[in-house]
């Protein structure tokens, strides 16, 4: 539904398996995510019926693969996973989108706190990144922007890229 705002947990469910694995890898590489790592380990333990201590002893790749199979992730953890995924995996796409909008950025990160993208430029900017990046990545990025700041990015609601090219009814 176009007027329903996405939540991080819904976005996690929509991610491909590969996106989830890469997001989980980014989580365990992040030194300042100890609380989220602990929460993720507890979810994995519950999902696999393991003790958290056993999960903590696994290597990053195995923890990432296991977390990718967990469908129900709390919004707070899903939010962190989404941000880390984009910062570690999607900076070129983020930069290309912001360049197409004429928004100043540093390697895909917006320089200013308050950004007001020109709604008229958004469809062309989305189409530009869609030509160079996989539809699933474009859809996830644009929907993540909409979740993070619905007021600034409200023009994204109208884009077919939000569902990977498929509109939901």
Map the helices and strands.
Elements: H1 8-14, H2 17-29, H3 34-48, H4 52-56, H5 60-68, H6 75-89, H7 91-101, E1 105-106, E2 109-110, H8 122-132, H9 135-148
Antiparallel strand pairs: 1-2
Detailed description of the structure:
This protein is mostly helical. 59% of the residues lie in helices and 2% in strands. It is built from 9 helices and 2 strands, in the order αααααααββαα. It has helices at 8-14, 17-29, 34-48, 52-56, 60-68, 75-89, 91-101, 122-132, 135-148, and strands spanning 105-106, 109-110. A two-stranded antiparallel sheet has the order 1-2. It is elongated, with a radius of gyration of 17 Å.
What is the structure about, briefly put?
The protein is mainly α.
Spatial order of the strands forming the largest sheet: 1-2
What is the average per-residue confidence, as pLDDT, rounded to a whole number? 91
Radius of gyration: 17 Å
Largest sheet: 2 strands, antiparallel
Large-scale geometry: elongated
List key phrases describing it:
elongated, mainly alpha, 59% helix, 169 residues
């Amino acid at each position: 539904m176009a007027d329903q705002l996405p939540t991080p947990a819904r976005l996690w469910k929509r991610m491909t398996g590969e996106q989830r694995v890469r997001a989980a890898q980014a989580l365990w590489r992040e030194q300042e995510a100890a609380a989220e790592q602990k929460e993720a380990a507890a979810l994995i333990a519950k999902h696999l019926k393991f003790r958290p201590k056993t999960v903590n002893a696994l290597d990053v790749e195995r923890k990432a693969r296991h977390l990718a199979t967990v469908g129900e992730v709390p919004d707070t953890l899903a939010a962190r996973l989404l941000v880390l995924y984009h910062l570690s995996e999607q900076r070129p796409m983020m930069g290309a989108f912001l360049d197409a909008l004429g928004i100043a950025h540093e390697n895909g990160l917006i320089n200013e706190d308050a950004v007001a993208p020109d709604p008229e430029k958004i469809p062309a900017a989305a189409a530009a990144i869609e030509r160079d990046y996989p539809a699933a990545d474009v859809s996830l990025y644009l929907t993540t922007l909409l979740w993070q700041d619905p007021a600034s990015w409200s023009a994204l609601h109208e884009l077919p890229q939000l569902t990977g090219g498929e509109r939901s009814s």
